[in-house]
Amino acid sequence: MTSPQPRPNVLAIPAYVAGKPPVARPGLTSYKLSSNENPYPPLPGVLEAATEAAAQMNRYPDMGSTALYAALSEAMGVPVADLAAATGSVGLIYQLVNAFCEPGDEVVHAWRSFEAYPIAVTAGGATSVQVPVTADGRHDLDAMAAAVTERTKVVIVCTPNNPTGPAVTQTDLDAFIAKVPTHVVVVVDEAYLEFVRMYDAIDGIATYRRHDNVVLTRTFSKAYGLAGFRVGYAVAPAPLAAALRAVSLPFGVSHVAQAAAIASLAAQDELLARVDDLVARRADLVARLREVGWELPDAQGNFVWFPLGERALDFAAACGEVGISVRPFAGDGVRVSIGEAEAFDRVVEVAARFAP
User: Fold this and answer.
1) Does the domain at residues 46-265 carry the CATH identifier 4.10.375.10?
2) Is residue 260 a contact partner of residue 231, using CB atoms and an 8 Å limit?
3) 122, 219, 293, 303: least surrounded by Cβ within 10 Å?
4) Each residue's pLDDT tens digit, 198-225
5) Residues 6 or more apart from 329 whose CB is under 8 A from it?
6) Whole-structure pTM over 0.90, yes or no?
7) Which of 351, 325, 295 is nearest to 165 (CA)?
């Protein structure tokens, strides 16, 4: 007799590596710059809304996310039928594979990109087709279009790309979508859209309105600072949104998370001020890193990318010695989140020692 065995694809799922907290160093304030978290406390009114919602923890959440969908619909001017909520944007990736892929079907995405893509694809029994990013960390959209086969059911464009940083332009996205067969779902993952400051930036809402196969995935984890509550949402043509809702985990988005997200949407002025501050910190850090010899990929998220190759783990260890946790990707590079400005002196100091 043998013990129960999981499906072969389950054994092949790569492990997700979360950003580690910093190790305390005597005489130093430690900073966690490893998880692309928002360093600010909750937006005004959010803690109060969450606390009030927590008092009803004996009740199930609204499985239809009715109030959240209404708030999102009003904020973006899209029909409620075109929305699907999930436990963060990563939950939506799992749902997309579950809804549109048979075992053996292919999902095309850039690499290196968001670490959860191959995990979600493999867990769903599909095949992850990884197209290398360019030398400056950008999506090679021509190569991605060429990688689409008769087995392709989903393609994912992560913009800005996590962890390398560059964002796709509207012109390039339009050209790419035109090359993808209309029966293939084109996912535009906009987890960091609020931080983009560039010419010809993507207008995700306008793009989804022009195409029957485009899905936008977004999250409250980054700019809105609700990483601990796990709430994301998709904007898609009604049939695609309905498919995502159909395979969603019942009661997956908690009542507290829904209440916090709704309150966050009501604090747009403060949100924009905080995002502008983080963008200014990003620009300052990039300028300082250039002064010590670094040419970094264009940073359009709330992080910067050091293409360190085989020196990635050494760089991360050096940051750890001065009380800063960063996110290394062995053999590729290191991602450093834009967090507390006080941490940047030490990041620049370490970076100067590793400058190419």
Assistant:
1) no
2) yes
3) 293
4) 999 999 999 999 999 999 999 999 999 9
5) 112, 163, 312, 335
6) yes
7) 295
